[in-house]
Design goal:
- By secondary structure, this protein is mostly beta strands.
- It has one domain: Secreted effector protein pipB2 fold.
- It is built from 1 helix and 6 strands.
- A hairpin with a 2-residue loop joins strand 2 (about 15-20) and strand 3.
- It is globular, with a radius of gyration of 15 Å.
- It starts with 8 loop residues before the first strand and ends in a 22-residue tail after the last strand.
- The model is unreliable at about 95-105 (pLDDT under 50).
Length: about 110
């Protein structure tokens, strides 16, 4: 995550959960468009809800993995010991439906 004190945007990779599937998208948080100062302790508050298509009708690039693979990665001390690469693959076609929160009051809740 870039330092919000010296940046005008933050680049992050929010994760959205839908059952056991975790969808990962690249995202920008434009600090000048926020209604309050950015709080790095709660970055998920500033990430948009999951969408598959942007405001211009373009498909948003995303990757899919599983909750178990994310958990395995987290438990392996962020991949430093005993971690085999998580299976990240292009998102399969599926019917649009709201994503379930990963945890906490609002999805996504992921490090930026």
């Amino acid at each position: 995550m870039t330092d919000p004190a010296v940046s005008n945007f933050i680049s992050c990779w929010p994760m959205y959960r839908d059952g056991d599937a975790i969808y990962v998208q690249n995202s920008l948080i434009i600090l000048g468009e926020l209604n309050e100062p950015f709080d790095p302790q709660e970055p998920w508050r500033y990430v948009e809800p999951h969408r598959e298509v942007d405001e211009d009708g373009n498909r948003i690039s995303e990757w899919v993995t599983s909750a178990a693979e994310v958990r395995q990665f987290r438990e392996s001390t962020w991949g430093r010991r005993g971690h085999t690469s998580a299976s990240i693959r292009p998102r399969p076609a599926r019917a649009a439906r709201p994503a379930e929160p990963l945890e906490g009051p609002r999805a996504p809740q992921s490090p930026c």
